[in-house]
Amino acid sequence: MKRNCSMTPRQALLVYALLCCATLGIALIFTLRGAWMVLAFALIESAAVGAALLHYCRHALDHERVRLAGGALLVEHAEGRHRRVVRLDPHHARVSLVDTRMRTLVVIEARGLRVEIGRYLTPSARLELVRALQLALRGGALP
């Protein structure tokens, strides 16, 4: 499960470079004609857009992964630079969804450990995830 992003970080960088070239090129023309304030505003605008795209790029690759491998249920959550992997006992794991209509997350509990997943899924997709996990924990395999 991953965040729904329309651009990869590389594409965002390319868009930002093209936007800066166009904005600063136009601002430079106005500056050469005596309107130096246009350049100042273009620099402020480029910095603000750059900050917004930096935040976007840091979180564009956020994801959650659930794997059933080697006798363990591995739940990986990556958000920005932070990555966390939780190892759960699949024989004692319980999967639940508190409210199927609300924006609650899927809860996996095993031996005192509790993990919430499904941040990037719609409520109906969370329900499908619960069903798939319950089936896999009963003896099937994760899709």
UniProtKB/TrEMBL annotation:
InterPro entries tied to this protein: DUF2244_TM
Pfam families recorded: DUF2244
Keywords, ordered alphabetically: Membrane, Transmembrane, Transmembrane helix
Keyword check for Transmembrane: yes
TM spans (from-to): 12-30, 36-57
Annotated protein name in UniProt: DUF2244 domain-containing protein
